[in-house]
Amino acid sequence: MADMMTVRLKVNGVAHEGRCEPRKLLVDFIREDLGLTGTHVGCEHGICGACTIIVNGESARSCIMLAVQADGAELMTVEGLMQDGKLHPLQEAFREHHGLQCGFCTPGMLMTALDFLRTNPSPSDREIREGISAVLCRCTGYQGIVNAVRAAAATLRGGR
Amino acid sequence: MKPPKFEYHAPRTVDEALALLGRYGGDAKVLAGGQSLMPLLNFRLARPAALVDLNRIPSLAFIEESGGRVRLGAMTRQRTIEFSPVVAQRLPLLKEATRWVGHLPIRTRGTIGGSIAHADPSAEYPAVLTALEGEVVARGAKGERVIKAADLFQTYLTTTLTPDEILTEVRLPAMAAGAGYALEEFSRRHGDFAIIGIAAVVVRDGQRCKTARLATAGAGPVPVRLRAAEEILERDGLGEAAIEAAARKATELVDPDSDIHASADYRRHLTGVLTKRALVRAIGVARG
Ligand SMILES: Cc1cc2nc3c(=O)[nH]c(=O)nc-3n(C[C@H](O)[C@H](O)[C@H](O)COP(=O)(O)OP(=O)(O)OC[C@H]3O[C@@H](n4cnc5c(N)ncnc54)[C@H](O)[C@@H]3O)c2cc1C
Ligand code: FES
Ligand code: FES
Predict the structure, then answer these.
(1) How far is CA B34 from the centre of its chain?
(2) Can you give the residue range of the structural domain that contains B107?
(3) For A48, which of A43, B59, B127, B229 could close a Cys bridge (C-beta 3.0–4.6 Å)?
């Protein structure tokens, strides 16, 4: 194909290079070209939040970004949360507090919560609900997720 | 779904971007935060020949205050606005409105220029631009022009910007120190577009009202400035009766449509309810 473009970026600290059409969505590049299938794709139009990742330090929907726009960017996906074989405090809290059932929304929930807690380390329950309203979950009824984010906030404030 | 084929350009300057738009003669689209345009591409509701991506033009992202007004570059992210100390101090209404725009992961990408150029009738920023009597700067092949809020919004998703123009800057007069303000909104879930939103600004002098500003989101094809309701407050003051009268007048000034989210009657009713709530809260925080 004539109009293929080169994309160089870092994901979870690892450098990658790929070639794709300009219309390739970032989420598809991550899943298909880089083989990182932890990031999920649901609605493909910015509503559900399943595809949320961290782009240059801030949460963003990877289904409404083009892969070519991420050339030169540093990304973090759900695969980057675990460090040295240990779950991230957010992941621990989701497991502990039943913050997931089927797990489809979970990668997006985790990355959204990560960014949310960075902007607001001591949120009220109301603020947590507002924060996670960015991601749709069809299973949990959200209460377990609210509990998990509250617990993770406490752990993260404690500097673990 | 996936977007149709297009050519992609990421110019470094506004001049380059304008040259590209000129080259495609109306068949190219400007890509800002992509939070409205990318869904349209994914649905194939938009099929431009090319995208001209503004994300690599650093000169389009800034917030500057001078001479009693705040200038915001078109590519300033909604999230930057949310956390900007200048905005918090000089344009607290804009800050408050920003929290209603989608969600944090939307605001990291979405821009003020994109929000205004997109001209969704339910969006918050066009209502704020209207209430604060702001203006935008548009650059095209023939140079630069300044467009007042009242002359910008034409109908649903349509502004007086031409396809070969780029909105480069949004200018808002700094709010008077001590001005009261509120943005009241009703939507089914937090982060959804407004069914009705009301932006209010009140400058008070005791129980007298020096200036009142009211504008709507969601109450018709474009934001509606509720001038006749403002006049009631400026004439009769800030007492309960005047607030009631202004809210009633507001319902007469709008001509909302029915859609799957709400009927026209319900929207009209909400316009009155939210005007009252916005005024009560704005008056409550106003000093002077
Ligand atoms: C889940 C979700 C919820 C949302 N909720 C809300 C909400 O509650 N309230 C709200 O207001 N918005 C909401 N939005 C939309 C969001 O605010 C968008 O950011 C905004 O509408 C468009 O800004 P953008 O920078 O993303 O522009 P883009 O999507 O890149 O562009 C939108 C349109 O404007 C044109 N354009 C953009 N910039 C310029 C420019 N500088 N000059 C000329 N033309 C330009 C583009 O060509 C395109 O036609 C939501 C979006 C999503 C995905
Ligand atoms: S898949 Fe991206 S928001 Fe739904
Ligand atoms: S756990 Fe199934 S969608 Fe959230």
Answers:
(1) 16
(2) 62-173
(3) A43
